[in-house]
Each structure stands twice: as C-alpha cells, then as structure tokens.
Q: What sequence folds into this?
C-alpha cells in the first residue's frame, strides 16, 4: 500500500516535471512567433517593441495554460501554428 | 492520487515560487532599496552637505566646463549631470568599467566637494538588475521575472475564489502554518497589482535579452566579431576646443524640450547633447537637444515619436519611478517591501509544509540554509555595507571595493552559519542569531550616523532621519519576529 502510494507520487511528480518542461518548450517559441509576426508589420522599431510588450505579457499566461491541462497545451500549440502561418503569409 | 487543476497549480506555484523565490528576494530587496539610491548615496557621503533646491549659478557651470575640457584633453570621456531636487550637486562623471565616478561640484560656487569614494546606493541598483554579473546577470533576472509571473499566475488560479476574504483574514495567533499562510495571502492580494506591474515592466526594460527581435533560426548562428581596423588607420584625436558657455545652451534646450528640465549633458568631439531630465514626467525618454561645437549653435531636437514608443516610455517610467514625488517614492518603497515579504513568507511556507515529511533529507536542509541566508543574510550584508562605509578611513585607497567585499563577506558568513546550523537540524539556532545581528546593525545605524556624520545629520535631517529611522524600524520588526520564534520554542 505504502509502496503503491510512493510510486504513485513519484509518477505524478515525473508527469508534472515533464509537463512544465513541455509547457516552457512550447510557450517560448509561440511567444517568439507572435512577437516576430507583430514585428513583421511595417513600423520599424516601434512594432518590435509592441511585439515584445504583447509577447512578454502572454508568455507567463501561455506557460500556465500549457501546464494546466492537455486541452491548454493543444490550444497553445494551435495558437503557435496560427502564428507561424500568419508569419509565412506576411513574409 | 487524484490530480485536479488546483493541486497541479499548487505544485507549480510552490516549486516555481521556491526555485525563483530565493533569487527574487534578492532582486526585490535591492530593488526596493534602489528607490532611494540617490538618498542612500548622500547618506554614504556625509561630506556632501549641499541642501536641496540650491540654485545653479553660471560660475558653477563655467567651472564644470573647464573641468570637462581638462578631462577631454586627457582623453577621458565625461558627461555632466545637472542638479535636481534629489541630487543638488553638479557632477562631472565618467564610467570606470564598474560604476560612474568623478567630481562633485558645488552648484553655487563651482568648487569641488571632497567626498569619500563609495559605491553608494547605485550598488543596490546595479545588484538589482545585474546581480553583479553584467549581461548574463540581467538575463537571469529577466528569466526569474517571467518565472515569478508564472508563479503569480498559478497562485491566482489557486486562490481566485477567496481573493476578497483573504484580504480581511489575518490570524497571527492561530497555528504557525495558518498564520504564515494568512500573512502570505494578505500581502500577496493587497499588493498584487503593484507586484505584477513592477515585474512586468522590469522584464520589459530588457525585453530584447529574452525575446530578441531576430528570427529563431538566426539565434544559433554565431555572429562574426566586428573587425578591428588596422592600427594606425584611426586618426589621432586632436585637442578638443573649449566648450561654449553652458547657461545659454541650457536655456535654449529647456525651451526646445517643451519646458522640461535638463537632466544631463553628453559631449562628443563635434557636438554636445542636452537630455531631458528623467524626473520631468512619467515618460522616461531620451529626448535631447543637440548643439554644434565649438560655437554652440542649435542643431535640432531628437525625440521618439509614436504611440508605441510612448507606451514603452511609460512602462520604463513606471519601473524606474524617477518622476515620483517623495510620497509616491515611499509608496513604491513600502510596496516593494511587501512584495519582498510576500516572496519571503512563501519561501518559509514551502519549507514548513515539507518539514515533517522531508526534514531529514539533505536537500531540505540545503533549501533551508539557502532560505535563511537569503532572508536574513541579505539584510545583514546590506547593513554591513552601510556600516563599512562609515567605519573605513575616508582617504583609504580602494574603499569602494572594500565596501563590496564587506557586503559579500558578511553574506558568505551568514550562509556558512546557516549551513552549519541546519546541518545539525537546529533551525532556530540559525534564524535567531542572524535576526539579532540585523537588529543590532539596524538599531545601531542612528548611533553610527550621529557619531561619524553629525554635521551632515544637522544639515540634511530628512535624509538621515529617514535612513536611520528605517534601520531602527527594521530592528524593531526583527526583534518582534525573533520573540515569536522564541515563543514557538522550536
């Protein structure tokens, strides 16, 4: 019984660590893509700053969303795909 | 074990908060002290007794011009900081690779003020955003800021249902864990808007370090080092011409800057630029008026127009708070202290919750010693830094490096003491002597000030009363916490 609980807890911790690593690995590129998309709009340095303002506000939210549930991870991945497509279309 | 959103967020809040919290306490505590960096520098230079709002005379500006020209002839790249409400002296400064150093001039007579060499309050400022590690440190601080925002986000998810009740609930007489949790929630909820604002704007100040504006693919391509020109190709700089009278240029610049006061003047071989003061408004701009040298003809204005640039300037202005009046500055200071208390209480809670299950583990003891050396070691070293400033001989060579050595030495000693005590599982034995040391150093600050800088105390009572009083207040709070620890009997 105790061994089961310990194994259960270890598995849970392992899942959570994997979850936060994946959340960071997914969220950071998404934030970068969002920033690059906004920076790609005409406007020079100002749009880069706007991109940074928005992406930095979004980055912690994306990480929490990614980590919260599987659906959150999927939605952030979807947002990343949209950002990539928009970036390709703009360029 | 059933995994819910709340338990998952609780795990993220605890671990993200603890891992980054140790660093965040250092960043927040030194950032809070940096709110009064100029005042701390004045406290640390009791020889400078120029009162605030002393009018600047043309004689002083001419003396500054001569000094700047002398320095330029010697090849030193200097700039001139103009008097302000917080710093009434005229400073001819240059960067020595570590800090801005130079000569302080009396704004009435232009005579140099012989002050002791000190790191001053700018030490806390530079520690706050670089951790004394340059760009690498700034990058680490930025990453810590983002992780802290993640910890705050997960904390909000956990407590969203009880945000309002948390504000009115503080049960210090309840069980220790409950009391700490109530205190953590109270300061967290009350100062949540300030904490989020200050972390977010802080990360934005150096946003390019974590979100560089280059395509991701280019991040892994090494940049070619800039090619240095072959020796001898660079023309030897000639003797710079004398500067024109600065007073008329300042009047013209003030008119060009829409009535804003001038903050500082930069000099280049063919021009000088008068920059708007950071204290002139919440927009932290680098707007400046350029004048041609040597005749001093106005070349034009350089401003950053656009709505997005203004948003960025406000973000910077809110973080640096250089526009703030003394009242608002105190509000920043108290809010910063409460944000530090929020993180500190979170660290203590994290350890308390795990003590019964993991208290025997080496990892737990390391975590506890790190927490103690951060929460009590850092105030000890900051106070030791102030004591060192007054105890070292004023004419001692390299005394500013000694101040840093004293700061780091005190911190290392505290960390060593905490490690020794926690390795023997005598946690209170680590907390209590260090708390007593804080009380001793903080409570002794007014005495030290009166004994070593009594003339400055009389000529600048507000600054000295504020800093000495804060030291005394810290001593009282710390003694109260120590008494509570003793009452718990652990």
A:
């Amino acid at each position: 019984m105790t061994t089961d609980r310990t194994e259960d807890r270890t598995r849970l911790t392992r899942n959570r660590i994997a979850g936060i690593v994946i959340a960071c690995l997914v969220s950071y590129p998404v934030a970068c893509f969002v920033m690059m998309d906004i920076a790609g709009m005409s406007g020079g340095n100002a749009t880069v700053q706007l991109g940074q303002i928005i992406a930095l506000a979004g980055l912690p939210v994306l990480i929490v969303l990614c980590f919260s549930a599987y659906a959150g991870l999927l939605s952030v991945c979807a947002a990343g795909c949209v950002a990539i497509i928009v970036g390709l279309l703009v360029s | 074990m059933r995994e819910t959103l709340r338990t998952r967020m609780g795990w993220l809040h605890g671990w993200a908060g603890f891992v980054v919290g140790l660093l965040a306490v250092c960043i927040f505590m030194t950032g809070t002290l940096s709110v009064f960096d100029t005042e701390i520098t004045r406290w640390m230079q009791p020889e400078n007794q120029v009162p605030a709002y002393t009018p600047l005379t043309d004689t002083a500006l001419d003396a500054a011009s001569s000094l700047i020209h002398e320095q330029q002839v010697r090849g030193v790249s200097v700039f001139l900081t103009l008097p302000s409400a917080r710093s009434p002296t005229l400073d001819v400064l240059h960067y020595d690779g570590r800090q801005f150093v130079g000569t302080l001039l009396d704004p009435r007579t232009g005579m140099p003020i012989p002050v002791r060499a000190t790191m001053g309050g700018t030490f806390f400022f530079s520690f706050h955003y670089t951790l004394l590690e340059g760009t690498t440190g700034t990058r680490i601080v930025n990453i810590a800021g983002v992780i802290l925002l993640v910890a705050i986000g997960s904390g909000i998810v956990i407590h969203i249902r009880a945000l309002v009740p948390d504000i009115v609930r503080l049960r210090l007489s309840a069980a220790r864990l409950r009391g700490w949790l109530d205190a953590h929630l109270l300061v967290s909820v009350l100062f949540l808007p300030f904490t989020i604002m200050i972390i977010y704007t802080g990360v934005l100040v150096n946003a390019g370090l974590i979100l560089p504006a280059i395509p991701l693919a280019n991040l892994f391509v090494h940049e070619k080092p800039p090619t240095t020109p072959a020796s001898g190709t660079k023309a030897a700089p000639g003797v710079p011409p004398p500067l024109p009278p600065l007073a008329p240029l300042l009047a013209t610049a003030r008119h060009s800057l829409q009535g804003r006061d001038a903050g500082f003047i930069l000099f280049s071989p063919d021009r000088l630029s008068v920059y708007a003061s950071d204290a002139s408004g919440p927009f932290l701009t680098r707007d400046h008026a350029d004048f041609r040298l040597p005749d001093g003809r106005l070349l034009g204005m350089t401003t950053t127009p656009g709505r997005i640039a203004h948003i960025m300037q406000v973000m910077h202005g809110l973080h640096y708070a250089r526009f703030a009046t003394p009242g608002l500055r105190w509000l920043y200071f108290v809010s910063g202290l409460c944000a530090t208390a929020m993180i500190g209480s979170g660290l203590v809670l994290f350890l308390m919750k795990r003590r019964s299950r993991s208290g025997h583990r080496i990892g737990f003891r390391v975590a506890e010693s790190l927490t103690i050396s951060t929460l009590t070691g850092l105030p000890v070293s900051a106070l030791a830094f102030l004591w060192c400033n007054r105890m070292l001989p004023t004419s001692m060579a390299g005394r500013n490096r000694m101040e840093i050595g004293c700061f780091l030495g005190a911190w290392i000693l505290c960390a060593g003491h905490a490690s020794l005590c926690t390795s023997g599982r005598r946690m209170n034995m680590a907390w209590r002597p260090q708390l007593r040391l804080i009380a001793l150093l903080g409570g002794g600050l007014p005495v030290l000030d009166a004994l070593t800088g009594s003339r400055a105390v009389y000529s600048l009572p507000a600054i000295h009363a504020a800093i000495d009083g804060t030291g005394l207040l810290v001593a009282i709070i710390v003694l109260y916490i120590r008494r509570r620890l003793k009452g718990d009997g652990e």
Remarks:
- The helical segments of chain A are 2-40, 45-68, 70-90.
- The mean pLDDT of chain A is 89.
- Chain A has one domain: 2-90.
